[in-house]
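Hey, can you fold this one?
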Amino acid sequence: MLRLGIDLGGTKTELIALDSTGEVLRRERRPTPSGDYGAILESVYQLISEAELVLQRKGSIGIATPGAVSARTGLLKNSNTTVLNGKPLDRDLAQRLGRDVRMENDANCFALSEATDGAAAHGRVVFGVILGTGVGGGLIVDRQIIRGRNRIAGEWGHAPLPWARADDQPGAPCYCGRRGCVETYLSGPGLSRDFHERTGTWQTPEAIVASARGGDSLAGASLTSYVDRLARGLAAVIDVLDPDVVVLGGGLSNIAELYRDVPPLLSTYAFSDGVDTPILPAKHGDSSGVRGAAWLWS
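Sure. Predicted structure:
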């Protein structure tokens, strides 16, 4: 069976083609058209058509996208690619392609990928975390996506930062309309904002981490604060779900210090006499979401 997955991100769209064993037959990325819904549909159509032409067969189609399909309206909601909100994206793609598609939140797809054949394949309850331009989460139990009644299970990025301190206040505005969401602290822009507040200058997360490793005290303070905030956020998740494994993905998951410094802090914040929950990097890296999209037809 040929499985095609599409990861429809804000800046890039990726296609992957997997055989029945998970072997990669084709992978391609191209920029996501900005602010143009029709152009996004056409870009996805072209990626799939070209792949099937090269592979000389049709496959199942899974789509990973920011946001979720509303159980009330059937339209996409909560996407930080705001041009997609309020659109029947899955139905429009199905009509354009002439066959059914399955669509899921990108963090759900990431978590499904890692729970299927990735870093968390040994865990029954898996919480997948995206730390990138935004902050997302996906919950998997027995290799099945848990969507929730309102299809927002795992959306820890839009909860308030737990145990907020004076230096966390008042919190930056979030695109969801609230202020001080976890996403505003733990996303890449959140780390850059923290450094700007300390120094008056803007740096990328990669530059901040490099400066911290080089001994820059203000960069070090930003990284230390990020680690502590991540530990607080994950401790609240652990209090509710107590997963077997937490897997990190997204650009900030490449920060090695997270795997060393966050786990000891979890016991400080979680409601337990100790926490031994493994915090692991994604096995499939930034292609995990697109692999999960393909696995939607498992």
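The chain has nine helices and twelve strands. Let me know if you want another pass with a different chain boundary.
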